[in-house]
């Protein structure tokens, strides 16, 4: 249980009206066909307003619709009902304003690390014939230097730039994929379990780097994870997805939407804050209680600091 010392209405991270709304989801529902004409409800009744520059973490156990929510914002998928609006316009196709890092890295196998990272911005900036001009080579040199900076921040070295994906570990490939998205400088950055396959040391390092980059340029970040500690460590706002039950059906919707009270602290100070562990225990318990898959014995067990939700 959460002690009375933890306030469940934390200090606001943003002042109302201070920032424009970047992303809106209005009465969004997603259903898929199931066996024998039935329907599987993935999300229902989702209403969210996300301001420009927020670092929003979407938390929840496997199957609660976290990745689906990202695909809706990206434009990779359309809702069964409701609307998704980005920068004031309904989302109808994949939007170049959104940078996307999936859980499973996806690099071109026939391109080097540098070639992979440069592919997006080079194709976005220039027509073929512009490559014959001196300005193109100047811009390409500056872009290459910037790419090296991002790759360096992700933990890659000069000797890695000419390697191909098959010469890298899975963790290194994921670092390249993150640098690839960051170099495009998207106003919206979507990360779907981007750190989940990494070892603890690498994961901690990339958490620090991602938070530092967000602090510098303040893109709107939507970060999907099932790790409670990671969510509370990185985000300014926490959205917990899970199951709600009524007499007629089960709904997968928003269980909790709150500003994170320790968001103004540096990451190291967040970890040491008394509110950090208490809020982690509260959120984990709430997620467990929403799941019909959990037994009463599981709910009675103490929540570990490194608690995962699925």
Please tag this protein with its features.
Rossmann fold, disordered C terminus, six-stranded mixed beta sheet, single chain, 2 domains, 310 residues, alpha/beta, disordered N terminus
The CATH architecture of the largest domain can be given as 3-Layer(aba) Sandwich
Number of helices: 9
**CATH fold node name of the largest domain:** Rossmann fold
Helix-strand string: EEEHEEEHHHEHEHEEHHH
CATH class of the largest domain: Alpha Beta
Strand runs, count: 10
Work out the count of structural domains. 2
Helix content: 25-40%
User: Which consecutive residue ranges, at least 5 long each, have pLDDT under 50?
Assistant: 1-17, 292-310
| Mean pLDDT reading | 82
- Please tell me what the overall shape is: globular
Rg is 21 Å
How would you describe what is shown here?
This protein is an alpha/beta fold. The protein has 2 domains: 16-97 and 186-298, Rossmann fold (3-Layer(aba) Sandwich), CATH 3.40.50.300; 103-185, Rossmann fold (3-Layer(aba) Sandwich), CATH 3.40.50. Helix content is 35%, strand content 24%. The protein has helices spanning 66-74, 113-125, 134-153, 170-183, 200-217, 228-234, 267-272, 274-290, 296-300; strands at 21-33, 39-51, 55-59, 81-86, 89-90, 98-101, 188-192, 220-225, 237-245, 250-259. The protein has a 6-stranded mixed sheet with strand order 6-7-8-3-9-10, with helices on both faces. A 4-stranded antiparallel sheet has the order 2-1-4-5, covered by helices on one side. Strand 7 (188-192), helix 5 and strand 8 (220-225) form a beta-alpha-beta unit. The chain is globular, with a radius of gyration of 21 Å.
């Amino acid at each position: 249980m959460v002690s009375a010392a933890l306030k469940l209405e934390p200090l606001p991270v943003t002042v109302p009206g201070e920032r424009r709304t970047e992303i809106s989801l209005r009465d969004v529902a997603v259903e898929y066909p199931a066996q024998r004409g039935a329907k599987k409800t993935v999300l229902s009744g989702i209403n969210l307003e996300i301001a420009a520059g927020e670092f929003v973490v979407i938390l929840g156990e496997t199957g609660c619709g976290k990745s689906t929510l990202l695909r809706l914002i990206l434009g990779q998928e359309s809702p069964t009902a409701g609307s998704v609006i980005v920068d004031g316009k309904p989302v109808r196709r994949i939007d170049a304003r959104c940078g996307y890092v999936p859980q499973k890295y996806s690099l071109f196998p026939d391109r080097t690390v540098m070639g992979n990272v440069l592919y997006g911005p080079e194709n976005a900036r220039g027509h073929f014939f512009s490559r014959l001009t001196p300005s193109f080579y100047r811009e390409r040199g500056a872009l290459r230097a910037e790419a090296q900076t991002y790759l360096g921040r992700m933990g890659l070295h000069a000797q890695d730039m000419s390697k191909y994906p098959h010469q890298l570990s899975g963790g290194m490939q994921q670092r390249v994929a993150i640098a690839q998205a960051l170099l495009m400088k998207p106003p919206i950055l979507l990360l779907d379990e981007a750190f989940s396959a990494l070892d603890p040391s690498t994961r901690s390092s990339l958490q620090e780097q991602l938070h530092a980059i967000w602090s510098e340029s303040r893109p709107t970040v939507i970060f999907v994870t099932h790790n409670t500690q990671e969510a509370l460590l990185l985000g300014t706002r926490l959205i917990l997805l899970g199951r709600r039950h009524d007499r007629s059906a089960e709904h997968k919707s928003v269980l909790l939407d709150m500003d994170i009270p320790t968001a103004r602290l540096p990451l190291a100070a967040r970890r040491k804050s008394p509110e950090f562990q208490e809020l982690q225990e509260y959120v984990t318990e709430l997620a467990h209680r929403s799941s019909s898959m959990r037994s009463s014995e599981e709910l009675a067990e103490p929540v570990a600091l490194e608690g995962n939700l699925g």
